[in-house]
Records
---
Amino acid sequence: MKRSSIYITTILLCLFSIVAVHAQLKDGEVVKIKNVSSGKYAIPQDVSTAANAQIVIMTGRSDAWFTWKAIAVTGGYYKFQNMHTNLFLGMLNGSKEQYGFICQKAGGNQADLQWKLVKTSTGFKLKNKNSNLMAAIEGGSKANNAKLIQWSDAGQADITWQFETTGGGASTAGGKKVLFDVVLNYIAVSEATRNRIDNGDCKRVFGQVSTELWELDENNEMKTKLRSYNNMPEMIYNQTNHDGPPTAALSYYQDNVNAAANNQMGKVTYNIPEILLKEKKLMLVVKTYVGTRHKDNDFASYDALRMGEVVQNTYILDYRSTRTETIQTITDLASRSASSTADMILLGHIIPSAVFARADDTHNIWIKFTCKKN
């Protein structure tokens, strides 16, 4: 082989390695976590939303179960938050032992949720801060549903990982594009366990309502998460202050909700191929996770009520110029439910479970939004 050919081959190999490794993660970047040995991706087992559900590898898809938000923390570590469950990659029972199982957990600053990226020629090793062991696959398996464990570094193939950016993309469909708005019109509340009337404090709502827009393939599976127009925030409601949130909601039975039908509390816009609306190949995902303030009477102390978990509603979009939808949900009696031991995780912002320990009531909640084709 000529020297020039060898040189060119070497350069190409170096370029390939650079592409395969992916640059150091950016704070807030959304990625899929790919095991290099198996070519499969980290996902909660049985697509569970439960805390402590173990993490397995699975053949890749593009839906939110397979995606994780990388959150940079002190010391060059990262936390990884699943975009569907809002739980974090960590160690079951905080294990420091070899063969400890990797699971999804409620967020916090505990060391077992923090991972150091150790660069290799083909990716990264994920080193747990709590144990100093590496994320690996049980038995080095390449099979679907093989469990993630932590193991010492002996240079084995299954401890190398890559990060594939999935923060959003553009549709491959051609033709004319139209602007499509999703507008939050109102949030309304009422007491559920005592009566249907609320006082003014119940209208103080915290939490988040967010959207995702997915293009579907020929089998109606999620194919591509579409970017919002000019990367607008996809949070149509975002309030992390649980101590003193402003009055944002209506009283469902006392206020005139019909008069609020055209309100605009929040909006996100998408620029989408018109053909996808006509062929019903777009799925809107709305994620709701909110809480409310509550006082039993003027002399009582405040309680904080919250939903037990994120509620995800999906809608197949069509060519209607305007469409309205209402999501009805409810806050849990946290002091009487399994959710009382879980923190409320708002995309990295943590509201401790102790805040909800005194809850002795619950609220019905209505989320009304409008989809509009421009």
---
Amino acid sequence: MSTAAKIQERLRHHMPSIVALGLRGTALLAGFVITYFIGHKQGPAANGQYALVTQTAMFLSTAGLAGIDIAVVRHFPAALTRKMPIALSTFIKVSFLSIMLMVGIGLALWATGDVLWQPLVGHAVPKSALLVLSVLLIGRGGSRLFGAVLRSQHVFTLGQIVEVSIIPVAVALLLAAGMLHTPGQALWATAIASIAATVIGLLACLRYVGMRGETLSVPMKNLLHSSLPLWGVYMSINAVDWFTLTLAATYLNASGAGIYRVAVQAAGLMQVISISLYSIYPARISASFHAGDLAWTGRLTRSATRVSALCAAPIALVLLIFPERLLAIIGPEFIACAPVVRILVIGQLINTLIGPAGMTLAMSGNERLNLIISIGGTGLMFLAAPFATKYGGLEGLATSITTIMILRNVVSLFFVSRLLGLNVATGKVRPVKGGKPKVHTPPAGAAAE
């Protein structure tokens, strides 16, 4: 094979990852545009209010989905390996249950008044934002669910457009065009865009659903068996994002939350790489476990680690050296969070080099162990972060979160090596104690009809 052919083959192999990076990068850029127009023109407090509502909606949508979107990525790739569509009955049950769970959370918010509202957003956001929050959590949850279904069928580009691109790009364009002038208008635009993304995702998924012939039917019992442990993991992740923002608002008011949000977004230039790649690889890694090919799993985790490290290193260097210049673009009051950016970037770089240990653990069927690790890390965060914020400000908050995230990933790395004999960074597989890796395939109920 010629050099040109080898390059083309490598590009073809990595094209989904490259596209994912492009889409996530576009979404991140759109997020910066939103932050610029709100923060630059209306100040940190307005930016904090917008961030609190949108992050709370993301957290609640994760709660409402109950991990079903992640279980879809775990189970539905079997339709590809068996070359059959997803059963219409399974698709309807998954969609209906997910939407109803999110509607239930929205109704609970209305029924309980300040009982839930105050712990969620404190006094930084007026109660009048409850309606837009309710619409937003349903739209965000729906777009995540149908984006996950598309990714499970290896429709990575459209899946990510539905899940991560449509909403921020639409809002950024409206802000840039001067059509939105207040945080409330920006929030309603975000909510409407999320509903539009959900509808687009739903229509796109119908192509991979069948009524006749052999179809993949996954009983809800089996889906929930996987979804609940996976849900706990993602709840832990989203709880960190939401809780840290709420802590900043509690101890440092809405302006503090707005400043902290900008720091997280700046450091998010690093995180977008791992998120982009890990949105592609779970379905592939799940397929490799379905096929019983641990060597294939190793090649995938090695590829994810190397590509993410290669892309992350130059971005980390820029963010560590020049954060003040980036933050000054939004406004001089945001420069103060430059140390926070550096702390978050160092932590994310270390986690990138560790590799996708937690994801590999979950996709191998060890969801419960992965859940225990995540809950342990989140519990430690809930205990440590308030003290760190109270006595160390935003720098203390960032340090505590970074330390706990690194510790959690190191623990996941240890168990992947011990149970599977797999080094996620190098892709090497070694014999494990007992002679057989502890890989748990989905329950037998996932069958063809």
